[in-house]
Amino acid sequence: SKDGYDHFMLKEIYEQPDVIKKSLDNKFPHGKLNLMDQSFSKEELLSIETIYFTACGTAYHAAEVGMRAMEKLLHKKCQSEIASELKYYQPFIDEKTLLIVVSQSGETGDTLAAMREAKEKGAKILAVTNVVGSSIAREADKVIYCNAGPEISVASTKAYTTQLISLYALAIDFAQKLNCISDQDVEKYIKELYTLPSKVQELLDHREKYKDLAEKIKGAKSIFYLGRGIDYLSAKEGALKLKEISYINAVAFQSGELKHGSIALLEDGLPVVCIISQENLVDKSISNVKEVKARGAYALAIAQKNFKNVQEVSDDTIFIPETLDIFTPVLSVLPQQLLAYETSLALGNDVDKPRNLAKSVTVE
Ligand code: M6R
C-alpha cells in the first residue's frame, strides 16, 4: 500500500532515512563493519587485478559512485561500463577480474547477460541487489543485499541510495582487508555513514519549495544538469529521473565540458540544475553558474550548505547538509528526486508508471 502517500514514488522517497539505516545496520552490525560471506576474503582479494563495475540506468549511476569510492579508498584505478555494452566487449575480462554487478531487481536482462559472459571468462562476480533469490543473486559468487524493501515505482529512488550504502560498505571492506586505510579512517567513515539518515530526513522535511520549482521548469523543452567529479555522477542520476517521469529532455554534462560545444544550446530561461557539493571544486563550479547565467539561463543550484556564495550567483538554491566528499551523492540526489516527482505531477503524468517503461527490463 501507499501508506497514505499519493504515489509509490513519494512513499519510497520518504522511506529513505529508514532503509538507509536498515542497510547500514545490516553491514555494520553493532557499528562494526562485517559483511561476513557477502564479501571476498583477503586471499581472494589479493588474486584480483582489475575491479570492474557494471549495471543499467540508475543502478549504473550508483555503480559509478561506488567505483569512485573504491578508487579513493584503494588508491587503485577501477573501471565501469554499461551492461548492454559490456556484454559485447570484454577482451580485458579474465580470471583475475572482479565484476561488481548492481541491480535493484536482480533480473535486468542486459546486466544478467554481461555477468554471464564475464563468468564464462572466469571472472569473479559480486552482486549488489535488492531482491533476495533473484537471478543475479543466485548466479553471483557473492551477494550484498541493499535492504531497501520492495520498490514499486518505476523511477528508482530508495534502491539508488541503498545501493550507494552497500557500495560504500564494500569499498571500506576491501580497503580494510587490503590494509589501504587506517582504523581511524574506518571509524571516521562509519561514523559519518550513520549521520546520513538524519541528514536525508532534514532534506525531506522541507518539501514545500519543490512545487514552486516544478512550476518554474515544467514548461521547458530541455533542462541541463551540471556537475564536476562525483557531482556529475549525481547530475546524471537527477537528469535520468526527471526525463523518465516528466518526459522533458534532461541532459547531464561535466560542467567544464559545457564550453566545448553544448553551451551553444543555452538560451533565455533554459533551466540548468547545478550540483555543487565538493569543497575543492566550489570556485570552478561557481564560475560555471555565472557562465550559464550570462547566457540568460535559469540556474537552480543544489549546493553544500557552507557554500553560501553559491546563493548569490544562482536564481534558486537548495542547500544540502555537509558530509564527506564521497558520500555527497546520498544527499544531492534527494532534491533531484523531489524535483522530478513534483514536475511529473505538475505535468499530469502517471508518476509511478511512466510511458514506455517497465519496472524490470528483462529483455536484452
Ligand atoms: O533492476 P535494475 O536496478 O537492474 O534496473 C536497472 C534500470 O532499468 C533502472 O534503474 C531504471 O533506469 C530506473 N527505472 C530508473 O529510475
Automatic annotation (TrEMBL):
Residues forming coiled coils: none
Enzyme class label: transferase
Record's subcellular location: Cytoplasm
A GO biological process held by the record: protein N-linked glycosylation
Keyword vocabulary terms for this entry: Aminotransferase, Cytoplasm, Glutamine amidotransferase, Repeat, Transferase
Record field: catalytic activity: D-fructose 6-phosphate + L-glutamine = D-glucosamine 6-phosphate + L-glutamate
Residue span(s) of domain SIS: 41-180, 213-354
Active site: residue positions: 359 (for fru-6p isomerization activity)
Primary location: cytoplasm
Endpoints of the signal sequence: none
One Gene Ontology term of the molecular function aspect: glutamine-fructose-6-phosphate transaminase (isomerizing) activity
EC number: 2.6.1.16
Role this protein plays: Catalyzes the first step in hexosamine metabolism, converting fructose-6P into glucosamine-6P using glutamine as a nitrogen source.
Protein name: Glutamine--fructose-6-phosphate aminotransferase [isomerizing]
Gene that encodes the chain: glmS
